[in-house]
Amino acid sequence: MESVLSKYENQITIFTEYLEEYPNTDELVWILGKQHLLKTEKSKLLSDISARLWFTYRRKFSPIGGTGPSSDAGWGCMLRCGQMMLAQALICRHLGRDWSWEKQKEQPKEYQRILQCFLDRKDCCYSIHQMAQMGVGEGKSIGEWFGPNTVAQVLKKLALFDEWNSLAVYVSMDNTVVIEDIKKMCRVLPLSADTPGDRPPDSLTASNQSDELIFLDPHTTQTFVDAEENGTVNDQTFHCLQSPQRMNILNLDPSVALGFFCKEEKDFDNWCSLVQKEILKENLRMFELVQKHPSHWPPFIPPAKPEVTTTGAEFIDSNEQLEELDLEEDFEILSV
């Protein structure tokens, strides 16, 4: 099995190059809404990328559901991308976009608190265990590969358990003609959080002004890491310390989910205005915005809280979250 996965992982990198090989140009590179001048700020660019939480395949964690798989190698890549999206939104919410991570440096408590929520344990609220089991309600068996839209639905459910007032917008698309629209969204919408897609590599965390994307790849199998006795987590394997890879956007499978973080209501209003002005003016729309939940859609029913008591429970207050998000007055986002 490991030899098969190794062969698969090698195939993933055929069409990619490393960022350190990027031409020395005057182009601007955008990393999750923050721009860097490649020619003079490459070290800052690399530091910004390595600061992002990087979730990959893991092995030797407790079996999911008690008797399920103890590794997600080969099937959990999209779940790991979803974790990266949600983790980035939480970091923006609790630490700010300008927060930076340094190896061997003591990190704020909020950072450790966020990281612990994603450990591969059933009692961690955003773990592979919770996400896989939440996917059962979306028609996915534990151990089955998820598509971008399924991950977006799972993230929507999980986000309702977090008491932050902000909003993470996930737009899922499945259309072979949306590459140009994806490029446009990455460039004109400054609040992007992440972009998982069907064709590996899955986690696209940056875009620049050319036709290339910089990405964090989840297709690496690492050993399970648990919290230490003092409650902290050795986070060295949760950050990509090697030079990140890049790919031509035309190699991206157009079945993707784009993530955007809105810290305040005005950010969401600005996001909607930008989308309507720059994206939805075309005749062929990849999604649309409507003022209210469509009458022909089934009513929204908030998911039940996890049966187990989860680490990170201080984030969880679904009733308060639902009161703060007036779902009838906000825009609904319809994918096509």
Automatic annotation (TrEMBL):
User: Which is an annotated Pfam family here?
Assistant: Peptidase_C54
Recorded hits in SUPFAM superfamilies, A to Z, give: Cysteine proteinases
Q: Which family is it part of?
A: Belongs to the peptidase C54 family.
> What protein am I looking at?
Cysteine protease
Query: Where on the tree of life does the source sit, at the highest rank?
Result: Eukaryota
Organism from which the protein derives: Callithrix jacchus
Annotated function? Cysteine protease that plays a key role in autophagy by mediating both proteolytic activation and delipidation of ATG8 family proteins.
Please list the GO terms describing molecular function: cysteine-type endopeptidase activity; protein-phosphatidylethanolamide deconjugating activity
Q: What is its main location?
A: cytoplasm
Q: Membrane spanning segments where?
A: none
Q: Which residues form the Peptidase C54 catalytic domain?
A: 43-187, 207-273
| GO BP: any one term | mitophagy
- Protease as a keyword of this entry, yes or no, is yes
Could you tell me what reaction this enzyme catalyses?
[protein]-C-terminal L-amino acid-glycyl-phosphatidylethanolamide + H2O = [protein]-C-terminal L-amino acid-glycine + a 1,2-diacyl-sn-glycero-3-phosphoethanolamine
Q: Which GO terms describe its cellular component?
A: cytoplasm
